[in-house]
Amino acid sequence: MDISYFYTFKEVAKWGSYTRTGEELGYAQSSVTTQIKKLEDYYGVRLVERAGQTMRLTQSGEQLLHYVDQVIDLLEEAESKVSKNVQMRGTVRIGAVESLAAYFISKSLKAFKEQNPDLRIQLESGLCPNLKEGVLESHYDLAVVLDEEVKHPLLETLLLRKEKMVIVAANEHPLVGQEQINIRRIEDETLILTEKDCSYRNMLEGILKKRAVEPRSVISFTSLEAIKQCVIDELGIAMLPEMTVAGELENGSLRALDFDHQGLALYIQIIHHQKKWLSPSLEKFIQLLYERR
């Protein structure tokens, strides 16, 4: 059996589509179908079935995927340790929260790509809970998250730095310039928040709940840029990572409010599965992130 069928099978499991798998791997759809059929013939079971518009793994397919992940990791480890090639090859799968993808890892990723032109990099943004789950399920080789310190028995956590969170308002907001503002003043404000399950939204809502503070109204967006523009347009106030509003604070289009609550900060962290072998390419990327911090 051709071991490349395992790579095709893993992509089908990821995308749920023979067409998308073919596009990602440079195969015709018929070639993907043929490879999956040969795997099914080899094992004598049905591995993939149609569910509406997508393809999903059967129970046997789920069992095989567990072993395929391990086989591919071992193959990549063997190639890396045995091969004398200087250039790194293969695929690196990285997850990151949107704010870090846009404002923290982009420069490291650019340098990484320039140093390793033959390396295929897959970067996906997501919320912290989804990223943790993705690492546990081997969907990502590693993820870069902004959260409370991650503690999980199956995850390795590498702390990069502490990131300050700032509550920002438009330049003409009446609270601008005031010192030690009582956090209860938020009851008179409209909060512009990120989507539910975002780590810093959860942190702010937790703080307000403990103080029995309920804002006048709440607006939610998935886009950081939309949130910042709404604050600039005086639709409300928002709490965001300092790095995401550094430019606006510098040019004066946004102003940081001095609320009396201490400890508004989260940690930028790299997480990976404890059993995940870190290839030289992954170790190099981690090194670049440490240099960026």
- For this structure, the CATH topology of the domain at 164-263 is D-Maltodextrin-Binding Protein, domain 2
How far from one another are the termini? 45 Å
Helical fraction: 40-55%
Number of strands: 11
Parts with pLDDT < 50 across at least 5 consecutive residues: none
CATH superfamily of the domain at 164-263: Periplasmic binding protein-like II
Overall geometry? elongated
Which CATH architecture of the domain at 164-263 is right?
3-Layer(aba) Sandwich
Largest sheet: 7 strands, mixed
Mean pLDDT: 90
The secondary-structure element order is HHHEEHEHHEHEEEHEHEHEEH
Structural class: alpha/beta
Q: Beta-sheet strand percentage?
A: 15-25%
User: Tell me, what is the CATH class of the domain at 164-263?
Assistant: Alpha Beta
Number of helices: 11
Cα gyration radius (Å): 23 Å
Protein name: LysR family transcriptional regulator
Family: Belongs to the LysR transcriptional regulatory family.
Domain HTH lysR-type: 1-58
InterPro entries: LysR_HTH_N, LysR_subst-bd, WH-like_DNA-bd_sf, WH_DNA-bd_sf
